[in-house]
Design a protein that fits this description.
With 486 residues, this protein is an alpha+beta fold. The protein has 19 helices and 15 strands. The chain folds into three domains: 63 residues, no CATH class; 243 residues, Endonuclease Chain A (Endonuclease, Chain A); 165 residues, Endonuclease, Chain A (2-Layer Sandwich), CATH 3.30.870. Helix 10 links the parallel strand 3 and strand 4.
């Protein structure tokens, strides 16, 4: 009997070893074939090999992009979306006459954007910056209260605090007036506060959906693929976008417990349709409901001088679109590149683009928060800053409170606004939405905001980075290993 038991144990061990090897080989092979980033591929393969079974399970849960197939199926079966991906060349027509001699070279960036985004530039827009929730929230609430036909609101975080309640009340009043309201909250962002704002919205009969909720076991593969977009469209003609969530911390004048500086923008004109289309795609993806599109309502009339284009980005049909636009803008820059972002963990291509621009004489300034709300991201940033600081890129750390603002300005005429950060999570893993704007006046206003923050910040020096202690440098270096996922 003992011999039989021993034989069965040996057979079980053999079978387990074979299954483990097959799982590891299959998982590593899948990563090699389908992961686009070589660093991410190497990280996953290393984890799969060094931590058998556990590494493979983590890869299938978190490393496989199951979004692309579902999104592609949705778009292929819905005529509503197929027309959005035609290549439309409008840069020469719109930017040629509109840019002065000092900025005529940016028309090349417009042509590049035509091909990368496969979306048309629009003329006749007005864009106005709103600093912090103190400026943004009242205007957003006023627009909601003035709505007559429709409201589409998408956000990553919608807290249930005082500010959240103000938005719930305004949305409820709109529903009572007969306005068609739709609210989309990311499944992770909806859980940042307790109780979740979803309950309050539902109780007030406000149509609300969560983008890929993660409480269900079968939603685990989507932990990293979040809808980070911030979009509000009212009556198809007024839009808001930027980096701002709906949180009490955004009201700095009210001295909240966790204050957060941020930047949002009010948009009017034809580009608002781009915000509406992005929301409609996300809503259909989440709920299956197809909302009326731009073709179902009167065209939005021109209201200003700005040429602009909405740029959706995500791990499906629009993979790395925003990063490609950023790279193109840096390549076109002749005099200045100004970047403000809360999370700065760029990949090798972005680091090279910044350093090449600085080396050829372009003034490259990057403003980051001195105190980050995500310490491990700050550590990873510290580990790579020497690569840009030692190549003439000027980096500044702005004082608290934490600054969540996202902004990029090139040559005083091109401005990029929206939700994307300079890290892999935004540029590869999340669904984001940005808007590129061609207009010296808007760039001047944005530059004023940037310069005020830069002048209040302290510069980062190579000596400071080299002077970190060995334990700190090891900590930062270890955090940097996770940059494909930060």
């Amino acid at each position: 009997m003992d011999t039989i038991i021993a034989l069965l144990v040996d057979i079980g061990d053999y079978v387990a070893a074979v299954l483990t090897a097959l799982l590891s080989v299959a998982s590593a092979g899948h990563a090699i074939l389908y992961k686009r980033d070589s660093r991410a591929t190497a990280s996953w393969v290393g984890l799969i090999v060094l931590v058998p079974v556990v590494g493979a399970v983590l890869y299938w849960l978190m490393g496989v992009n199951r979004i692309r197939r579902r999104a592609s199926e949705l778009r292929s079966t819905s005529p509503r979306f197929t027309g959005q991906y035609a290549v439309l060349h409008g840069a020469d027509r719109l930017l040629g006459p509109g840019l002065d001699a000092a900025h005529a070279h940016l028309a090349a960036l417009g042509r590049y954007g035509d091909r990368v985004t496969r979306r048309a530039l629009t003329a006749g827009n007005a864009v106005r910056p709103l600093v912090n929730g103190d400026a943004a929230y009242p205007e957003m609430l006023a627009a909601i209260d003035a709505a007559r036909e429709s409201i589409a609101l998408a956000t990553y975080i919608f807290d249930s605090g005082d500010v959240g309640q103000r938005f719930v009340d305004a949305l409820a009043r709109a529903v009572e007036r007969g306005v068609a309201v739709r609210v989309l909250i990311d499944g992770v962002g909806a859980r940042y506060s307790r109780p979740s704002i979803v309950r309050a919205l539902t109780e007030r009969r406000i149509p609300v959906a969560r983008f890929m909720p993660t409480l269900k076991p079968w939603s685990a593969p989507f932990w990293n693929l979040r809808n980070h977009r911030k979009i509000l469209v009212v009556d198809g003609s007024i839009g808001f976008t930027g980096g701002m969530n709906i949180r009490t911390g955004g009201l700095l004048d009210e001295r909240p417990k966790n204050p957060t500086q941020d930047l949002h923008f009010r948009l009017e004109g034809p580009v608002v349709e781009h915000l509406g289309v992005a929301f409609a795609e996300d809503w259909a993806f989440t709920t299956g409901e197809v909302l009326p599109g731009p073709d179902d309502r009167p065209a939005v009339e021109p209201v200003g001088p700005i040429v602009a284009r909405g740029i959706p980005d995500g791990p499906d049909a629009d993979f790395e679109t925003i990063q490609q636009i950023i790279l193109g803008a840096i390549a076109c820059a002749r005099s200045s590149v100004r970047v403000m972002t809360p999370y700065f963990v760029p990949d090798a291509s972005l680091i090279t683009a910044l350093t090449v621009a600085a080396t050829r004489g372009v003034e490259v300034d990057v403003v980051l928060p001195a105190k980050n709300n995500l310490p491990y991201v700050y550590w990873a940033t510290q580990a790579l800053l020497w690569q840009v600081v030692k190549r003439d890129v000027r980096v500044y750390l702005s004082p608290p409170p934490f600054d969540h603002s996202k902004l990029m300005i090139v040559d005083g005429a091109w401005t990029l606004i929206g939700s994307a950060n300079w890290d892999a999570r935004s540029l590869r893993l999340n669904f984001e939405f940005n808007v590129e704007c061609y207009d010296p006046a808007l760039a001047e206003a944005a530059t004023g905001i940037f310069v005020a923050k830069r002048d209040a910040a302290r510069p980062v020096t190579a000596a400071e980075l080299d002077g970190r202690s060995i334990p700190v440098r090891l900590r930062d270096g270890i955090a940097r290993l996770a940059t494909p996922y930060l």
